[in-house]
Amino acid sequence: MTWIRTIPLTEADEKLRQAIEGEKKLYPIEYATPVHPDDSGASSIVGSHTLLPEALFHAFATFGALMSPDLPLSRAQHEMIATMVSVTNRCVY
């Protein structure tokens, strides 16, 4: 496993906090509790992006936008697509 320096939420500056809070607002409530939390309690995959707050926001806000309830797909269809993408990419997320 590659070691990546991360910034814990307890040490985040305002720009990083805004990026994390902004992308979280786009996610369904079920995503509020990380499946694979890091030492700070945040999602480890989000933590790996903490050195680049703008990239963090755009990378994770994309998924949030794709899960929007305003789209014509049902929540179940969104989850099936996300699951198949993860399986295809051999990803645990």
What is the quaternary state of this protein? single chain
The largest β sheet comes out as:
none
- Indicate the percent of residues in helices: 40-55%
**Distance between termini?**
16 Å
Number of helices: 4
Secondary-structure element pattern, one letter each: HHHH
Helix-and-strand structural type: mainly alpha
Could you explain the architecture of this structure?
The chain is mainly α and 93 residues long. It has a domain at 11-68. 46% of the residues lie in helices and 0% in strands. It has helices at residues 14-24, 44-47, 53-66, 75-88. The longest helix is centred in the middle third of the chain and has 14 residues, at 53-66. It is globular, with a radius of gyration of 14 Å. The model has no long low-confidence stretch (mean pLDDT 87).
Throw out a few tags for this protein.
single chain, 93 residues, globular, mainly alpha, 46% helix
